[in-house]
Amino acid sequence: MDMAAIEASLRDFLSRSAEREGIAAAYLFGSVARGTAGPKSDVDVGILYEKDPPLTLEGLGLRLEGDLESLLGKPVQLVVLNHAPVDLTIRVLRDGKLLVDRDRTKRVRFEVKTRFEFFDLEPYLKLYRRMG
Question: Are 48 and 81 in contact, with CB atoms under 8 Å apart?
Fold first, then answer.
C-alpha cells in the first residue's frame, strides 16, 4: 500500500470510528507523513480523545492499534496524545497531517496548550541535548 493509500484508508476508517471511539482529532505523523517511509516502516498515528482515557490497555488504544494494523497490513504505532510527553506531541503537531477533526475546539485548545508547554520547556530540552 503506498503512502497516499495509507493516508486515505486511515482518514476513512478513523472518520467512521471517531464518534464510537470518542476521538476528537487524529494525526498521521512520522516517516509516512513525511513521505520517507520504507517497506518496513511502521505507521505512526496520534489520537486525541475527547476525554482523557484511563491508563489501561484499552485506554492506551491497543484495540484501535490492532484494528489499524489489520486495515493497513503494516505495523502501527498509536500514540494517545492526551498522555504523550510534550516533546513527542510537538513533533506530531509540527510534522503531522491532520486526518480527523471532529472536535475543533478541543483540538485547537490542545494544540495551543502543547505549544505553550513546549516553548516553556524548549530551553531545558536544548540544554539536556547539549549535555547528553
Answer: yes
pTM tops 0.85, yes or no: yes
For the chain, the domain total comes to 1
Q: How many CB atoms lie within 10 A of CB 51?
A: 10
Residue 124: CATH number of its domain: 3.30.460.10
SS (H, E, C) 83-107: HCCHHHHHHHHHHCEEEEECCHHHH
Q: How far apart are CA 58 and CA 61, in angstroms?
A: 5
What string of pLDDT tens digits covers the 132 residues of the chain? 888 999 999 999 999 999 999 999 999 999 999 999 998 999 999 999 999 887 765 666 788 999 999 999 999 999 999 999 999 999 999 999 999 999 999 999 999 999 999 888 887 777 777 886
Instruction: List the grid coordinates of 65.
Output: 492499534
